[in-house]
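Notes from the 1:1 (GR / supervisor)

We went over the backlog. Supervisor wanted to see one worked example end to end before approving the batch request, so GR pasted a single chain during the call. The sequence is below; no edits were made to it. Supervisor asked that the structure be written out right there so they could see what the output format looks like.
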Amino acid sequence: MISKQKLVWPLVAVVAVAQSAALFDMVYARDRLLKTGREITLAVQPLDPRDIFRGDYVTLGYDISGLKKSTTETDPDFSGLSRGSMAYVTLAPAPDGKWTETHVGSRYPSQVAPGEVVLKGRVKYVWNAGNDAEMTIQVRYGIENYFVPEGTGRALEDKVRSHEIKAIVAVASDGTAALKGLIVDGERHEDPPLL
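Structure output shown during the call:
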């Protein structure tokens, strides 16, 4: 009969291997998205200066973060979007190079025109001041924080306020997005590959 003490260390090893494998899978998936995702650039919106810089990362806002039902084509179930639900935002390139939203829904759209891209996000807030047409949602895409080398955040914060920064975003076919880097004063800054 095997004692319980002899089983403890093999079980600890199995748990450690399983946790390491799960962590590696997350890193691998992110690295793959950054390398193979469709690349778009989004203008960065200045945020409240009191909240924009926290420690060693910069908080980024986008025009597509706040979406109003009256100004965006939406699914009939737009009102079904609630705090914490998924939102799929279809973007199309404008002649000036900006990406603008063309459709918002709670499901991945059945048709996406060539040249368009779909971003998957999670609804953070819903505002409805008693008028459904003016309903507004705040969406987070997972590309709102950019980590910077220590001591460089303040300079980036100033550039965000003066609209001198664009975000480089990689988008997977399912709408998952990852922040790949920034364009600062026209110069491209990308993070080194994870793997």
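Supervisor's comment: Helices lie at 4-36, 49-52, 153-161.
Batch request approved.
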